[in-house]
Structures are given as C-alpha cells and as structure tokens.
Amino acid sequence: MENFQPKIAIIMRDDEIIKEFNLKRVTVNTSFGPVHRCYEGYIYNVPVLIIYGRFNGEKVPSSYINHEQNIEVVKNRNISKLIGTFVVGGINPEMPQGSVHIVKDLVGMGPYKIHWNQNQPFHNAEMYEPICPKLTNMLIAATENLDFPVKKDSIYVTFYGYPRIETKAELDFYHRQGWDIVGQTCDPEATLARLNRICYAAVCVQIDDPLGRSEYIGTLKEKKEAKQYVESIKSCRKRTSKLVLEFLKKFHEEECETCGKLIRKNNNFREFPDDFYE
Ligand SMILES: [Zn+2]
Predict the structure, then answer these.
(1) For residue 133, how far is its CA from the centre of ligand 1 (angstroms)?
(2) How far, in Å, is the centroid of ligand 1 from the Cα of 100?
(3) Alpha carbon distance 75, 73 (integer Å)
(4) Any idea where the domains of the chain sit in the sequence?
(5) Would strands 81-90 and 24-28 be described as parallel, antiparallel, or unpaired?
(6) How far is the CA of 142 from the centre of ligand 1 (A)?
(7) pLDDT computed for residue 99 by the predictor
(8) Distance (Å, rounded) from C-alpha 66 to C-alpha 72?
(9) Cα of 104 to ligand 1 centre, how many Å?
(10) pLDDT tens digits, residue range 70-127?
C-alpha cells in the first residue's frame, strides 16, 4: 500500500463494501489529531479513500461533528474529489421514505461555526454553484443501471435544529419553497470542501417522509400499535452504496474547470489604514 494515492474520497458507512473490496484501515493525521476510521484500496479499478462516517469516536449531536477535520483528511491525502453520502429527512409528501437524491443545490437555514486559523487569510467561500457539476454529472450517469429511481436535481436544506428534527410547520414551509430534503451535515461539509478547492458532490437517501411521521403520531393517539415510521438506516444506505458503486465502475478522471478556482482571496486585510495611527 506504500505510494498508494487515492483519486477520490467518499464519506460512507458501509461495512460490506469495506469487506468485499478488502479495503485496509489507515490512520490519517490532521491538525486536530489522527483520524483512524479511514479505509483505502481499490474499488473496481479506482483507488479510493473511504471515511467511515462523520463522527470521530463517539456519537454526538451534529453540531459537535468536526467537519474541518474530515475535510483535512481529504486534503492531507492529496485528494481533490469528495462524495458525501447522507441519510436525510423527506420534505415532499410525494417522495416516500427510501427515495434517493443527488444534490444540486443547498439552502442554509441557520448558523454554524468553524474554527479559523487566524494566521491564514480569510475569505468567504464562493457558493453560487455549491456542488461540483463534473462529479454530479458522473453520478447522474451512474443512475442508468439502478433498479430504483433517483431524483437528480434535489435541493438540500441544512437545518440546525439539533437536537431535534423538523416540525410540521418547518416542513410545510420548506415544501412551499420547492426544497426536497433536509439534514444537518451536508453543509458546512460542502462549504469547507469549496474553501479547500475540493470538488464535492452529495448523494442522499430519505429515512422518513412527512406522511409517515404524521401517521405514526396518529396511530399513537388511537392507542393502536404504532408501526415503525422510518426505514432502517441500513436498508436506506444500501441504495446510496449501490449508486456509489455504479459511479466507481464508470469513474474516469476529468479536469474540473471551476471548483479549484473559485476563491475570493483577501490577503490585504488591515483593521484600518496605517495613517490612522497617531
Ligand atoms: Zn469540480
């Protein structure tokens, strides 16, 4: 495995893929400390790095996730492409649990904070087009042979309501806006990828839908035995894994004209002009 250089990183929890392709666990050092949950090897002919989920060590609310550390893993392994896989909430009553989505755009509905190394010049990420079009087109091409439908232009709203999921009023509002899915992690991951000039794309699967959540509460009220209203995370993830595998089967390296260049650097920050000092 010496000199092994992954061409793409994928954040994905899939034990079967790691076993089937005999990926080797490696530790990647970052300025936040080592990340042990990394797996490298070939999937089909593509050298990949899998980061096994976003939580380092323990399960905590999503606001505790060290997204910067996860992105630093990708950067420190000299990888310029990243695909995030996500389990998300459904917004559209027409899209049932289990529906699979390729993200086209993001909406941020709340604050998040990142640590900023103040020795580095600061700039805001250019996010007019937050998702890499090249990677996304390859994901779209990979849906051809799947035995389930994939919505290929979904809008993901990032909800910072932790530690809770969305209210009915929030889902109704999102639906009226035309947004498709909701989660707590795709951003700031996408923003940090952009700040680090990494091509980024996202694949999501819905664990629930508004009707299922409503019906579940209805059956509780009627004192009937309530059926589980979420599909199991494992069976949901099977679908995003299938899409990622099809993507890797067809993966070819393509020059991306945009993601690496979308920077708005400000190297000349001064608090105020020098001649304002007495
Ligand atoms: Zn790109």
Answers:
(1) 6
(2) 22
(3) 5
(4) 8-266
(5) unpaired
(6) 17
(7) 96
(8) 10
(9) 13
(10) 999 999 999 999 999 999 999 999 999 999 999 999 999 977 777 777 777 778 899 9
